[in-house]
Amino acid sequence: MEKVKVKKVDLVKILQTNRDIHQKDFEEALGGYKIAVEKELKSKLKDLKAGKDFDLYINLSKPKSYVKQYNDVIGMLEIASEEEVSITMEEYLKYYKNEWEWQSTWHLSNAPYATLYNVAGVGNAKKEK
Prior knowledge:
By secondary structure, this protein is mainly alpha-helical.
């Protein structure tokens, strides 16, 4: 099967949901990234004040948002005059299953940041009592 027809309105809703999930994941990863950078800078400042040898290199990759990719597809669908559109298997995997080519790398790179962001007492997580 090369292509299937789907209702445009349903596809837009799914893309919006997937975009919102990605936006939330990105915000958590970015929050965790900021915490990790701050921790690293404090460590380097501590070494500086103690007269220890240090460098200013920080090996942390800033999370990247792919919201624009979702918005571009949504925008394209919103201007389409058809009520149904044809999608390929590749598009199905991206749009319905939320399996973009960047997804696995993105999650591997950013999972530690999101985890850090959700640690109780750190980032956005509530402190445990």
